[in-house]
Design goal:
By secondary structure, this protein is mostly helical. It is about 75% helix and about 0% strand.
Length: about 375
């Protein structure tokens, strides 16, 4: 294999580890907010809520980018993405609306499909729709970037598109009112990190040098800490009266946080990945195999794990009395997440036995 091909293979390996860790964090977060409830203000939940989804969008953007030998942008096909993302979205959401009242979960979610599709977060199923919309948007963007050769001008084009998405978000989306038919709010939020993945792949040598630069990594850590604090606790900076204004300013600070997060995450996971999978004579550890496996099954876990969450209302008051400390919350949510994922993986295994159910529930193309 060529040097470039070997580099790409290494990157995909630690991407799988990152996806595995990210999907575990997703289930941990839902264990806190849907099983226990009332813990949305906890630091652990705020941290989890800001770090897991940017990882998925960055990796999706990185893998979406395709180019020929002359580094000309290639337009991605949509058929595979439609099968992978939209078919399970359309199949699972009606089942979730039917099942939710029987789950005994206390989350304020929709009891009918029109409300779910109107909702800002789509009752948790926003990711597949948002990612498909990003792939749709990437088709004309890639055609424009193909004609604009200079990297600086390409970035300007992306900033213009981002500005247009912010305008659409402010006009047609309202998170507080829980209304966003077209998904413009989340599309605007994750467009930058998706395109960061595209450009990181296009400029992968420079991106790798940046990630491995100790000064750049140090700056990234500081930037992430500051931007995370400003986004998670805006009232500490501006006061409660200015919190809504800070939500709009967040369109500028969130991309900085996402880029810093990606740099730190890759700098942490890549050496571990190389040790586990690139050290001659070394067998990957059980924890590496576990998260690598979760990375391969991350979409299926995301789509199905909601059905196996269970109420833990009796723990709400004791945890609040403990001051919602990070350690007990982390321990509880990790145990619940492990159990929920185990059941979900068993169901995924069963669904894969049939090509029909694998297509409808997991978005796996019929081969």
């Amino acid at each position: 294999m060529s040097k470039n091909g070997n580099l790409l293979h290494q990157r995909i390996e630690y991407f799988d580890l990152l996806k595995g860790i990210a999907i575990f964090l997703v289930v941990m977060g839902h264990a806190l907010t849907m099983c226990v409830r009332g813990l949305d203000a906890a630091f652990l939940f705020k941290f989890i809520g800001q770090v897991h989804m940017p990882v998925f969008f960055f990796i999706s953007g990185y893998l979406t980018y395709k180019a020929n030998e002359e580094k000309h942008f290639l337009t991605p096909g949509l058929k595979k993405r439609f099968v992978q993302l939209i078919i399970p979205f359309l199949v699972i959401t009606p089942l979730w609306v039917w099942y939710f009242p029987h789950s005994h979960l206390e989350s304020p979610l929709s009891d009918n499909l029109p409300d779910l599709y109107r909702a800002y977060w789509k009752d948790g199923y926003w990711f597949t729709l948002c990612l498909f919309e990003l792939c749709l948007l990437y088709i004309p963007i890639s055609a424009i970037l193909q004609r604009v050769k200079h990297t600086f001008v390409q970035i300007l084009v992306l900033l213009v598109v981002y500005g247009a998405l912010i305008g659409l978000s402010l006009t047609f989306a309202d998170e507080e009112a829980n209304v966003d038919y077209a998904g413009f709010g989340l599309l605007a939020s994750f467009f930058p990190v998706f395109m960061m993945g595209v450009m990181a792949h296009r400029l992968k040598e420079g991106f790798q040098q940046l990630v491995h630069n100790q000064w750049a990594l140090t700056v990234a850590m500081v930037v992430f800490a500051l931007t995370f604090y400003s986004i998670a606790y805006p009232w500490d900076i501006w006061g409660a009266d200015m919190e809504s204004l800070w939500g709009k300013i967040g369109f500028a600070t969130t991309p900085l946080m996402h880029f810093a997060l990606i740099m730190v995450a890759i700098a942490m996971i890549e050496p571990w990945s190389n040790k586990e999978y690139r050290t001659e004579g070394h067998q990957p550890s059980a924890i590496a195999k576990y998260f690598n496996f979760l990375g391969h099954e991350s979409l299926g876990i995301y789509l199905l794990h909601y059905f196996f969450l269970f109420p833990l209302t009796m723990l709400q008051e004791p945890l609040k009395e403990m001051g919602m400390a990070t350690v007990p919350l982390a321990a509880l949510s990790m145990v619940v997440a492990f159990c929920v994922i185990a059941i979900t993986l068993l169901v995924i295994y069963c669904l894969k036995r049939s090509k029909v159910t694998a297509l409808l529930f997991l978005g796996q193309p019929w081969k």
